[in-house]
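[audit] Reproducing an earlier prediction to check determinism. Same input, same settings, fresh worker. If the tokens differ from the archived copy the diff job will pick it up downstream; this log only records the rerun itself.
[audit] input (289 residues):
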Amino acid sequence: MSAEAHGPSAGEYIQHHLQHLQKDFSFQSVKQTSIVDFSLFNFDSLFFSVVLGALGCLVLWMAARKATSGVPGRFQAAVEILSEMVENQAKGVIHNAQSRKLISPLALTVFVWIFLMNAMDMLPVDLIPQFWHTAGPALGFKDYMRVVPTADLSTTLGLSCSVLFVCLVYNIKIKGLGGWAHELIAAPFGDHWALYPVNFLMQMIEYLAKTVSHGMRLFGNMFAGELVFMLIALMGGGWALSATGVGLAIGHVIAGTVWTLFHILVITLQAFIFMMLTLIYTGQAHDAH
């Protein structure tokens, strides 16, 4: 029988679902061939990130627009609890009240945005990709589609680099350009000319390590969660193709339910951790060595 008469193998299924819809800057379909390639971008991650970011801003805007001084409704109460939680965390890390006017809303936006991006992992694995397999080629696109932006390393590192930029801005704003430049060469080992190269090297390593670990932590957890959902989906596929695979059907339902309930905690916790590290890193920018 021809290959078209058979469905994909388990390996082919996972490889296809892990492939991004990639475009170069001429908007031509391409495929990444190296680990680092700045000549292309993952269009699916970019699309869902922008849409979910706009959705998160809309939700917060609606809450602010409908806020009342009386007894709040459930929606307003939920947003107020979330906002108060973020503000309390910010007060514990950043003691400059003026800085918190920007950093607290930033942290709240980060939490909501990342939570929404993480929550895309709760959708059935083949729901949106199955629709795209028909619609994508009809529109002239490849049939690749990944819907969890935070399972894409370029997204999480982009977010962590944005946090790094905010930290650099506050370093200069709080300490002045000269004060921050002096700190780069005088800390952590002391203000002595012989230690300046070592201090500067240690500062660069610290900035690099914080930025990379900030993005990699979120990516690793979400990528692993997405992969587990694919493996669970394969159990359901194996049951559908097997006349005697009742055990696979039971395992598919049990594993899917347990992992989904556990993953609710994961997506919330990862959003909270990313938000807290954002506050901690920006708070460190206010501290003088």
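[audit] rerun output stored. Observation attached for the diff report: The chain is about 70% helix and 0% strand.
[audit] end
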